[in-house]
Amino acid sequence: MFETVVKSVNGLLWGEGQVLIYILLFTGIWFSVRLKAIQLVKFKHMFSLLKGSSKCNKNDISSFQALCTGLCARVGTGNLAGVAVAISLGGSGAIFWMWVIAILGMATGFAESILGQVYKIRDSNGEFRGGPAYYIQQGLGSRAFAIVFAACLFLGYGFTFSAMQTNTITDALNYAFEIPTFYSGVVITLLAGSIILGGFKAIARFAERVVPVMGIVFVLVAVVITLINFTQVPAMLKDILLSAFGLQEAGAGAMGAAIKNGIQRGLYSNEAGAGSVPHASASASPMPNHPATQGYIQMLGVFFDTIVLCSCTAVIILLADVDISGEMEGIRLTQSAMTSHLAQGGVYFVAAAITLFAFTSVVANYAYAESNLHLFKLDNKVGRGIYTLLYLSMMLWGASATLKQVWDLADIALGLMTVVNVIAIILLTPTILSVTNDYHAQRDKGIEPEFKVKNVKVQGKCEDGIWD
């Protein structure tokens, strides 16, 4: 019964109904147009804001830490296993559509991250909390709609995604070192528990140290492999483009599979529009003192996650001498590809990379869902204790679950979150445009942008005492 329901809902969202594919494309185009192609026109400015992004008050979280926390959740199985799934089911053309949804998604990520900053609050511990449930409740004035999103978030980031990340780690370790999945699952769960019990600040500090290092190392390895196989690169790029538009032997059916799997796995990887990253965005201290700054910072996260890291994985797989069966393959396809480049050391490298990538996602996923306990008035020791126990239990379950089980559950959770969040951010477009225009107007005057609620047309009501 449960599997039937999951299959039916996923069929509507991702299958024949393809509701989410149309929604994501529409949303990306909507914000790209309304924000005047901000992801392209202001591309250089996006990078310039990294300077000074680590500044914040001693007890707060900096913009750079918020970016790294967002990347913690983004950079995980989607980058290594998800790309493999996309290629195995959609062919090389799926990578083109991952790029498309990432470029469009940069504008969507900018929009939702602004809202995460505008409508955040301070909790009883003095930490900033925010995200879709908060801007739905404060901006749209609908507590019921906010609770619907929070429930979808708990299904995804609270439980399902942690199981999927653990499943990928344990499978990679089993393939590389023959470690039984249950035992590695226990160790991973205990390690994750030791970090998440330290709260959002501990998670942000962990992310700030780990994410830059693991990202740089993975990119460098991909660059070396590309240089070694440089003569094959033109043919690879040609194959990606031809496959993306069904110009290969399989025709329109291949094009449909490429679009579906490219967009589906692209969303899972960069999460633009899913409503997850606004939680990290909201956690950042308002320094520099304008929400648009964090919008730019998190837009950079979408670029780095998909355009850079997912492309690295795609290059590693497509330049390798491996057979792509057409059946669903995950992290083992990436490991096999790396083995063809680096011999047996490739298996170990991918096992180490996915362990770090997915483990950081596990830690960040916990923080996202935990932020919403405040809505249910469960942000106390008992509420957090029960949630933590359930979260860690799902990690253990995921260690021994099948690949299809965890990906199906992850797809349905991500899909439901995205539908609710996209409706909210489109309805809040006037606020997004007003805040963005205020930021650029101040910059055009040579003023360091500073956000004052009274000077901007904001829908609903912001929390008092943060911006004014």
From TrEMBL:
It is found in: Cell inner membrane; Cell membrane. Keywords: Cell inner membrane, Cell membrane, Membrane, Symport, Transmembrane, Transmembrane helix, Transport. It comes from Pseudoalteromonas undina. The lineage of its organism: Bacteria, Pseudomonadati, Pseudomonadota, Gammaproteobacteria, Alteromonadales. Pfam families: Na_Ala_symp. This is Amino acid permease. The keyword Transmembrane applies. It is a multi-pass membrane protein. PANTHER family: AGSS FAMILY TRANSPORTER, SODIUM-ALANINE, AMINO-ACID CARRIER PROTEIN ALST. The keyword Transcription does not apply. InterPro entries: Na/Ala_symport. The chain crosses the membrane at residues 20-43, 140-161, 181-203, 210-228, 296-320, 346-368, 389-407, 413-435. Belongs to the alanine or glycine:cation symporter (AGCS) (TC 2.A.25) family.
